[in-house]
Write a structure and sequence with these properties.
single chain; 256 residues; alpha+beta; YojJ-like (1; 2 domains; seven-stranded mixed beta sheet; 10 helices
């Protein structure tokens, strides 16, 4: 009988392990790790309850095991939604056309130049660069621009007196697509220092849900950070920023 219980526990463990790694590949979320740890305690208590013949605990566990599919769906609702959103955004961006090498170098130069300007003057900024996955959901409610990227345009947007300086600028290809975009707040709070601002939280939040590369300029310190793939890299220099952009941005043109 103990062997039978042990086999069931192992079966349930491997099922969760499969779901865990599948979601880990598609999304970057510390919440999954915390759920995984919680399940280990859940199975441990079950084994003790069975061995000690705890009647009420076993009644609860029998109910949970009979409805485990529904329970897993409820627990993983945010992660499942995130996966579906990422698949949808990837599909929506499949029709874009790469720009030529000259255009790419121009865009990198303009981004680096504008970040340097804003950093030296401690002007806060938040710029998200669309890669494979569409950011259309965040563009929809923002202030439309659709103007070719330049350091002058970017620095003007983030001047504190400008009406659109709050929120994020979203870049698609060689165009500033919109300003004042609202990005999602991050879930991985433990990755952030205690006094980090809302721009950093928003940058990390977007990187948890999409493959966008987001640049942040802190208005407190003037420091530059880059958020990508659920990670936030602080203390970025001019050279490091150029390397990031050269390696990760996937330039696309907008079809009129």
């Amino acid at each position: 009988m103990i062997l039978e219980v042990f086999i069931k526990a192992i079966d349930f463990f491997f099922l969760f392990l499969m779901i865990y790694f599948s979601l880990k590949i598609l999304t970057i979320s510390s919440r999954i790790v915390n759920i995984f740890k919680g399940l280990m305690y859940f199975l441990l208590i079950y084994l003790f309850s069975y061995l000690l013949e705890l009647k009420y605990m076993m009644t609860i566990y029998r109910f949970l095991f009979d409805n485990w599919i529904i329970l897993l769906a409820i627990v993983f609702t945010p992660e499942i939604r995130m996966v579906l959103e990422r698949v949808g955004r990837s599909y929506a961006s499949n029709k874009k056309v790469p720009v030529e090498k000259v255009g790419r170098e121009y865009i990198i130069d303009e981004l680096v130049k504008s970040m340097e300007y804003l950093s030296k003057r401690r002007i806060g900024a938040l710029i998200s660069i669309e890669r494979n996955e569409s950011l259309e959901d965040f563009v929809r409610d923002a202030t439309p621009y659709k103007i070719r990227i330049s350091s002058e345009v970017l620095t003007t947007i983030f001047i504190p007196s400008a009406p659109v300086h709050d929120g994020a600028v979203i870049i698609r290809g060689d165009y500033v697509l919109c300003a004042r975009a609202v990005l999602p707040n991050c879930k991985s709070e433990e990755q952030l220092p205690p006094k980090v601002g809302t721009r950093h939280r928003a940058a990390l939040g977007l990187s948890e849900q999409t493959d966008a590369l987001t640049i942040v300029v802190s208005e407190e310190s003037g420091g530059i950070s880059v958020a990508l793939n659920g990670k936030l890299d602080y203390g970025i220099t001019r050279e490091s920023l150029r390397l990031y952009l050269d390696k990760y941005i996937i330039m696309k043109v907008i079809k009129d």
